[in-house]
Specification:
Elements lengths: L1 E6 L8 H12 L5 E6 L7 H15 L5 E4 L5 H11 L3 E5 L1 H5 L3 H11 L5 E4 L2 H9 L7 E3 L13 H7 L7 E6 L8 H7 L8 E6 L5 H10 L6 E5 L3 H10 L2 E4 L13 H8 L4 E4 L4 H4 L7 E3 L4 H13 L1 H18 L2 H17 L1
Parallel strand pairs: 1-2, 1-3, 3-4, 4-5, 5-6, 7-8, 7-10, 8-9, 10-11, 11-12
Helix pairs in contact: 1-15, 2-3, 3-5, 7-10, 8-9
């Protein structure tokens, strides 16, 4: 099989779509011959890239069996390529691809272009639900989860804490990601942290539009000594944090017009052997199988969160058991090679149709 893969968001630019596109394009090389046309310059280069990638794809599409789009933003270009080249066109879609609140985008991209492609590979069942709500036929959507790479531990928890200047005797909760309201970090600071033992410290790595509200919540709750906003961190610091923490927390809350497409960071945390406690919400329900690779808690239920976290923090054996189960589950079911196999199978089915 020969695949022409077009990505409008690709490393070295950092982001969720960039990582997804990079990982799946590389993993697919194990199963198919793949050509990548990618924008590596970020959003500033997007207008030029949309024109350039369309023209280039138009001229070379005849050499390939199928065109795969990196996300729904390329949907309109994809539809035009399908019409002009008569090649099957498939797009990866994430939540915002179908929920973006712009009437022009909804009419032209979602209700016209995306629904006319041969298939849509959704990273969560919630994304499929939202696609249907916004006018796309459910039969054209296929759920294929995201994946993760094997995590090679480079240091012990004690060594990681020494490197990060963290106290050995404390218990550390960790959240990593873009700080937007749906992530629930501000809510967690206000509603959960004061219900946990004073020995528990909350590390927050990342930046975003909700940072100011988080800072206000920390001060208002009197938690300046127990909640640490780290800001953006390097890959090396991220690896150290995953090895230093006791539990990874993803306390998402429902926000109208926004949603968690999948929650890739929880898989990364699980691959590192961290027990995961996350909200039973949207794409997180596809990333986490309760009791197998983490624990799901009803969103915005502070008492439930406090009970689950306290039980894990107070019992080293329980925490270690969940850690072992989580790591084993991810290494047997959630690697990028497993995801690429599903992509290949679905693309082969489309080509046989």
């Amino acid at each position: 099989m020969k695949i022409l893969f077009i990505s409008r968001a690709y490393p070295p630019v950092v982001g969720g779509i960039e990582k997804l596109n990079f990982e799946i394009s590389h993993a697919l090389t194990e199963f198919a011959d793949i050509k990548v046309i990618a924008n590596t310059q970020g959003k500033s280069a997007l207008p030029f890239f949309l024109f350039y990638s369309f023209i280039k794809a138009l001229f070379i599409a005849r050499k390939y069996d199928v065109i795969l789009l990196g996300d729904g933003v390329l949907g309109l270009s994809g539809w035009l390529l399908k019409v002009l080249t008569r090649k099957p066109v498939v797009s990866i879609i994430v939540g915002l691809d179908v929920t973006f609140r712009n009437s022009f985008y909804q009419r032209l991209w979602v209700k016209f272009a995306l629904k006319r492609l041969d298939s849509l590979f959704a990273c969560s069942n919630e994304t499929i639900h939202q696609a249907v709500v916004h006018g796309i036929d459910e039969k054209s959507c296929v759920f294929i989860p995201l994946g993760v790479n094997l995590f090679n531990a480079t240091m012990s928890q004690t060594e990681a804490r020494n490197l990060l200047n963290l106290q050995a005797e404390k218990k550390y909760l960790l959240t990593i990601g873009r700080l937007v309201k749906r992530k629930g970090v501000s809510w967690f600071v206000r509603e959960v942290m004061n219900k946990l033992d004073n020995n528990v410290i909350y590390l927050i790595a990342g930046d975003g539009s909700d940072r100011l509200d988080i800072e206000k919540s920390i001060v208002a709750s009197g938690l300046q000594d127990r909640v640490i906003l780290l800001g953006s961190v390097s890959d090396e610091q991220k690896v150290a944090l995953l090895q230093a923490a006791d539990i990874f927390v993803q306390p998402n809350i429902p926000i109208e017009g926004d949603m968690e497409g999948f929650g890739l960071v929880v898989l990364e945390a699980g691959a590192a052997g961290l027990p995961i406690v996350a909200s039973k919400l949207e794409g997180l329900c596809d990333a986490i199988k309760h009791g197998e690779n983490g624990l799901l808690v009803n969103p915005e239920k502070s008492i439930d969160y406090a009970k689950v976290l306290s039980a894990l923090l107070d019992d080293d054996n329980l925490r270690q058991d969940l850690s072992t189960k989580t790591k084993r589950y991810i290494e047997t079911k959630c690697l990028w090679s497993h995801v690429a196999q599903q992509y290949y199978t679905e693309l082969a089915t489309i080509l046989r149709a």
